């Protein structure tokens, strides 16, 4: 994706994309959602997670980076 295309991504689509990608590796972020407080910024709220979920996420990212 180009920088311009990245700026055009809708936050709701981004949340669903991330939720789907995380589901593939068995990770659930319960608080994942769109931050409705600043719509112009198109922020995605990742929320809080348990420590073991944070470790799972880090491992999934490292695994993907190695491929």
What are the defining features of this structure?
2 strands, two-stranded antiparallel ribbon, 3 helices, mainly alpha, 67 residues
Provide structural commentary.
This protein is mainly alpha-helical and about 70 residues long. It is about 50% helix and about 5% strand. The chain contains 3 helices and 2 strands. A two-stranded antiparallel sheet has the order 1-2. The longest helix has 16 residues, at about 50-65. The radius of gyration is 13 Å and the shape is globular. The mean pLDDT is about 90.
Topology (elements, then pairings):
Blueprint: H1 3-7, H2 11-24, E1 33-34, E2 44-45, H3 51-66
Antiparallel strand pairs: 1-2
Summarize the structure.
The chain has 3 helices and 2 strands. It has helices at 3-7, 11-24, 51-66, and strands spanning 33-34, 44-45. The protein is globular, with a radius of gyration of 13 Å.
* Overall number of strands: 2
Terminal CA distance reads 19 Å
Overall pLDDT metric = 89
Largest sheet: 2 strands, antiparallel
Name the strands of the widest sheet in spatial order.
1-2
Pattern of helices and strands: HHEEH
> What is the alpha-carbon Rg in Å?
13 Å
Helix content: 40-55%
Enumerate how many helices there are, as a single number.
3
- By secondary-structure content and strand pairing, the structural class works out as mainly alpha
Question: Which overall shape is indicated by the principal axes computed on the Cα atoms?
Answer: globular
Low-pLDDT stretches are: none
What percentage of amino acids are in beta strands? 5-15%
